[in-house]
């Protein structure tokens, strides 16, 4: 007897993930037929030419094949040799062995030190507990673990920003929950207001939804907006009043492009406010920032103000998958434990870091300015993350999905339509990355303008 769609989970059938949806499938078909494709659909830096950091790949090489240190020790800086030896000793069986379900202790301790250093200053000393940190296969797995934990019935709701990253809508649907969208204000640079949060929450409650948590992406994906400290404090106050947990997606915390903007973590503001009754789950990843190690799948989840009984359930969920992959765990260690001044790798590491972040900032400016020069396009400043989310004026009755598919067929540019992220009814958008090299971005902008002038 053959398996048919009617035999499958309805939640699986209803789940959509626009970033790798039908348009990307069509792009792959066109590419196989010989058409040149520019993939602007996903934040995948190394696929678009970003070079890996030397410090990272040297350490990983020694972790994968320790005999290299014996055969040619002169090929590796002393601090890399020391780091690899320390990690190998702490991992027991090396990268080929399981770690404990939470992840290697040495890595979780390094993450705790990183968080404490990042969020502490003269006015506040913030601690972090390695036992409240879980190493995950990218930040996405951490997000999914928390959503799986929170969604207990089809009446349970999770507040998500609109526009949002489709990981959230897809996972909530997959786990049988309800999406409670709150709109970001495009006219004021995708800002977030308490009034809109209250509106979205009240409407959900009136519909019989039990709202469990609010998700915030900072810096924003796909918007590129950066929240300030007051905005974060407002979200915490809102969550406290309504008894909500907070999911803080902070994977782009190093991707900030204006001097006047600064990343402020939810953990930092929570500590400033002295709130101990708001559950906070924070996520970070080595896929973004200036590392761009998407394929290594390394990330972490930190939990604050979560009871030991609930923490035990998170550990159980982690245990089902045994542990996060060891290469990704090492990547997280290298992200939070970079070379220090005086170490052999420091100067090259800092040079590569400056070049990558400087180039991303230049591309962010180039893309936003270029999009705003196209008649019928409007793009907020790209102040963080790796994306632009321009509004586009389309003929009546036409959708951004139709637009993006036609654009792909004609020009080879692969974008994600705004329908996949959510938008105000009657508006149209697309998401594009800032990652293609500058000369290619110029080509993309020229093709977009020529296509938009003709498309009807």
Automatic annotation (TrEMBL):
State the InterPro entries in the record.
Answer: ALAT1/2-like, Aminotransferase_I/II_large, PyrdxlP-dep_Trfase, PyrdxlP-dep_Trfase_major, PyrdxlP-dep_Trfase_small
User: Mind telling me which residue stretches traverse the membrane in this protein?
Assistant: none
Question: What keywords are annotated for this sequence in UniProt?
Answer: Aminotransferase, Pyridoxal phosphate, Transferase
Q: So what EC number does this one have?
A: 2.6.1.1
Q: What is this protein called?
A: Putative aspartate aminotransferase
Task: Quote the gene name from the UniProt entry.
Answer: aspC_8
Checking PANTHER family in the record gives: ALANINE AMINOTRANSFERASE (PTHR11751), ALANINE TRANSAMINASE (PTHR11751:SF29)
Give GO terms for biological process.
L-alanine catabolic process
Enzyme group, top EC level? transferase
Q: Where is the Aminotransferase class I/classII large domain?
A: 76-448
Q: How does it assemble?
A: Homodimer.
Q: Which Pfam families match?
A: Aminotran_1_2
The molecular function GO annotations come to:
L-aspartate:2-oxoglutarate aminotransferase activity; pyridoxal phosphate binding
User: Source species, please?
Assistant: bioreactor metagenome
Keyword Transferase included in the entry's annotation: yes
Which family does the entry's similarity section mention?
Belongs to the class-I pyridoxal-phosphate-dependent aminotransferase family. Alanine aminotransferase subfamily.
């Amino acid at each position: 007897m053959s398996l048919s769609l009617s035999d499958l989970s309805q939640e699986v059938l209803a789940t959509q993930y626009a970033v790798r949806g039908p348009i990307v499938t069509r792009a792959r078909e066109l590419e196989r037929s010989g058409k040149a494709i520019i993939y602007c659909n996903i934040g995948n830096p190394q696929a678009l030419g970003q070079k890996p950091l030397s410090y990272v790949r040297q350490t990983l090489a020694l972790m994968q094949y320790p005999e290299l240190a014996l055969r040619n020790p002169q090929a590796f800086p002393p601090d890399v040799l020391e780091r690899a030896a320390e990690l190998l000793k702490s991992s027991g069986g090396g990268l080929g062995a399981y770690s404990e379900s939470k992840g290697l202790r040495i890595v979780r301790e390094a993450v705790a030190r990183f968080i404490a250093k990042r969020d502490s200053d003269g006015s506040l000393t913030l601690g972090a507990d390695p036992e409240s940190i879980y190493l995950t296969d990218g930040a996405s797995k951490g997000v999914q673990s928390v959503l799986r934990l929170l969604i207990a019935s089809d009446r349970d709701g999770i507040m998500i920003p609109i526009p949002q990253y489709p990981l959230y809508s897809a996972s909530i649907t997959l786990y049988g929950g309800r999406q409670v969208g709150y709109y970001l204000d495009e006219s004021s640079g995708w800002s977030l207001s308490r009034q809109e949060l209250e509106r979205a929450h009240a409407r959900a409650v009136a519909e019989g939804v039990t709202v469990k948590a609010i998700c915030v992406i900072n810096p924003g994906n796909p918007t590129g907006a950066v929240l300030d400290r007051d905005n974060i404090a407002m979200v915490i106050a809102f969550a406290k009043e309504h008894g909500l947990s907070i999911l803080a997606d902070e994977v782009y915390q190093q991707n900030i492009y204006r001097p006047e903007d600064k990343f402020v973590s939810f953990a930092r503001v929570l500590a400033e406010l002295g709130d101990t009754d708001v559950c906070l789950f924070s996520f970070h990843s080595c896929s973004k920032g200036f590392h761009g190690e998407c394929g290594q799948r390394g990330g972490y989840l930190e939990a604050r103000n979560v009871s030991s009984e609930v923490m035990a359930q998170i550990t159980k969920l982690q245990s089902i998958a045994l542990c996060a992959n060891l290469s990704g765990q090492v990547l997280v260690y290298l992200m939070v434990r970079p070379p220090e001044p005086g170490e052999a790798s420091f100067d090259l590491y800092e040079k590569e870091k400056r070049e990558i972040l400087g180039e991303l900032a230049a591309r962010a400016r180039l893309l936003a300015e270029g999009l705003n020069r196209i008649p019928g396009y409007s793009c907020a400043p790209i102040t963080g993350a790796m994306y632009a989310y321009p509004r586009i004026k389309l003929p009546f009755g036409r959708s951004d999905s139709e637009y993006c598919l036609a654009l792909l067929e004609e020009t080879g540019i692969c974008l994600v339509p705004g329908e996949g992220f959510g938008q105000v009814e009657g508006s149209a958008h697309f998401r594009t990355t800032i990652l293609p090299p500058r000369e290619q971005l110029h080509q993309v902008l020229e093709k977009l303008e020529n296509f938009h002038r003709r498309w009807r």
